[in-house]
Specification:
The structure is a homodimer. Chain A is an alpha/beta fold. The first copy, chain A, has 3 domains: about 80 residues, Arc Repressor Mutant, subunit A, CATH 1.10.10; about 170 residues, Nucleotidyltransferase, domain 5 (2-Layer Sandwich); about 160 residues, Nucleotidyltransferase, domain 5 (2-Layer Sandwich). Chain A is built from 14 helices and 15 strands. Chain A has a 5-stranded mixed β-sheet. A 5-stranded mixed β-sheet of chain A has the order 13-12-11-14-15. The longest helix of chain A has 25 residues. Chain A is globular and about 65 Å long. Chains A and B meet through strand 12 and helix 10 of A and strand 12 and helix 10 of B. Chains A, B: This is ROK family transcriptional regulator.
Chain lengths: ~450, ~450
Amino acid sequence: MAASAPSSQREIRRRNLSRVLYAVAEPGPSSRAAVATRLGLTRTAVSTLVDELLRGGLLTEQGPTPPDGGPGRPGTALALTDSGPCGLGAEIGVDHLAVCAVDLRGRVRAREDVESEGRSSEPGAVLDRLRGLVDTVAAQARGHGLSPAALTVAVPGLIARGTSSVVRAPNLGWRDVDIAPALASAGASSGSASGSGSRSASSSRAATSTQPGTGTRPGPEAGSSPLPITADNEANLAALAELWLDSGRVPRDFVHVSAEVGIGAAIVLDGELLRGTRGFAGEIGHVPVRPDGPPCACGGKGCLEQYAGEWALLRAAGAPVEGPRDATLAALRERAAAGDERALRALQEAGTALGLALAGTVNLLDPGALVLGGVLARFAPWLLPSLERELTERTAAPGAPPDLVVSGLGADGPLLGAAHAAVRVVLDDPLSYRTEAAPG
Amino acid sequence: MAASAPSSQREIRRRNLSRVLYAVAEPGPSSRAAVATRLGLTRTAVSTLVDELLRGGLLTEQGPTPPDGGPGRPGTALALTDSGPCGLGAEIGVDHLAVCAVDLRGRVRAREDVESEGRSSEPGAVLDRLRGLVDTVAAQARGHGLSPAALTVAVPGLIARGTSSVVRAPNLGWRDVDIAPALASAGASSGSASGSGSRSASSSRAATSTQPGTGTRPGPEAGSSPLPITADNEANLAALAELWLDSGRVPRDFVHVSAEVGIGAAIVLDGELLRGTRGFAGEIGHVPVRPDGPPCACGGKGCLEQYAGEWALLRAAGAPVEGPRDATLAALRERAAAGDERALRALQEAGTALGLALAGTVNLLDPGALVLGGVLARFAPWLLPSLERELTERTAAPGAPPDLVVSGLGADGPLLGAAHAAVRVVLDDPLSYRTEAAPG
């Protein structure tokens, strides 16, 4: 009945191909019959879709189906391929860069981490170095028979909604940096991205191109296949990692709070990120907790970050703020474990400030759970008592406050979230990958 | 391709009937051709749907179409009926009860307001009185040829999500009161709700029934047609009124803050309310603004309500808290207008507290606008300077903070929102109304 039938047909096919991929991904290998039952589609329809996905190199067959495959003759078990497309995730940290490749089954197949002087380097130099790292990981992935299909970059800053432009990243000292052009040809092979995967990627940096501003679609350049590049806030990606990789522990509505140098939150509603009108939602680090408290770089006073941010915490504990982060944080953890009074008091005050900001958040949003990630997860044993006290005392609604979950992903949340977001670019739109991998 | 085709067919028909109603409602009278263009449906499909809505008494024809009706021969202009179903809205206030009837065109056709001793009366007595008021307004509506189709009740308290149960309404002193059973047959005629509309409703209270807990569906009782009853938080309904009645001024993402005796917020995202996991979102009155401030009934300390709630404001201004609200508030307004120092200081401090809570909200949610409603709108001239100062100073994202809009609906927001929500019960599901109005 709709006017635009032809494009709708293609949309329906695209959506159904994607649904089949997710149906196979979530419970693991399944027969065609099991997929049909799960999706409420006919066996015939599913067979057609599956054949297309097999031809496109996104699904493989693994021999006889397991006994829970449903009624009818035993079918062949379907699985997502581990030798087709992969997602590349990158993280720009204050003192490190990291890149990894994750296959369609969700396994990390290649990874590189390096130290970086993010705070004192020019954005261009940081992005050049990151591009090199992406190329290295992409070449490793190709060596494992994988074909990089998309790149997502986690940034500790505000990204304008629907763009790859970092409007502000105070802890990096960045302002209005568009990362897509700088990374344009990163990770791309110099020819078409065929499924063979054994081609070296070392020459891929030659084909620099002018990526469009949004960076979410591959460019039309003949003879090269630049990856679609997406930038997202690190707190957003860490929350998505929690949802995607640890979904048994978090409900589909939750608030994820994480600290690296700054503090950020991500609000997930029914499994989707709340991004905000301009893309700037989740700035819990600048919720005022003590209106007359110390001034903050944002222009406000007494922001949460002034009590529970990594630098504030180190200062309050009398620990050095400069120097290698990992060693400094490990030393603070040891002092807390040994009962050092100043360290314990600093952590207790950080927990109180977190409890104040989270109590306000709970009263506003009524989330199903609160998740602590990043550095906060590492210090949870010392933060939780005062945090939970404030939360319980200040939650207005009847009943207990939402569950507090300590993330098991630690510092890897943003990087894994970025790589899985890139994998989902393929799962969400299988047609675009096939077009790229097998043109015509 | 879907397994459950028959139910899907009915769903598609229901949705398309609803889309036609909204397409006619929003821009005013339109031809069938214009509706077809607007919805991307064929002229034939729209004609079939329109015929069904004309037979069901939801649409009427109004003579030749206006010149902007699109190409082809001039058609007949379609309009929503002003003599078919209507929505009933009710408001339970701390010191008043109100009920109104709104027709499909959005016009208020009947209304009753009475004073009430909500704070000192038993819930049963308040609800009995409200039921009488609903019956009176329903009878007036029938006298205008209208047929009440649904009832929505605005309550100043927490409603458990998906139920009609008021879990807590501190300013009424209510706890665990299910309003649907108490109002079960309110506003219903004793026979089937035919379109004639002239039947007296005075006997409708005889048919008491055991309404199901959720109260959102009419019961199956033969020979009577109890209205579907929905309860919602007053702040939620005030925000929806703003969205539906004043949509030119507010974007589809905004936060609405209103005060009557308490302070509540409603968060609207892409035109939909964020309700929260348990239905308790929007409790901005209990966001801590000064952690060591005065104790609050919620168990917390220094909540926004302790600075900007109506009682807190009156106390700070040295005005009496007891007595008739309207007169007390009018007197405070006069003192402020005359430059009374204590009144101005109280309002300035309330504005500061609002600015603190809203700055946190803006940093968390990045809304497109902030709307001040209820008593806050009435005192806007004296609240805004300090409110805006805090907001500007404490908004972390670059650029100006979101627009501040002062509601033009005043104290009527919750009541109008309730009546329009009831109208939308019909617009959203035209089949349910037809079934009730013309069984078989």
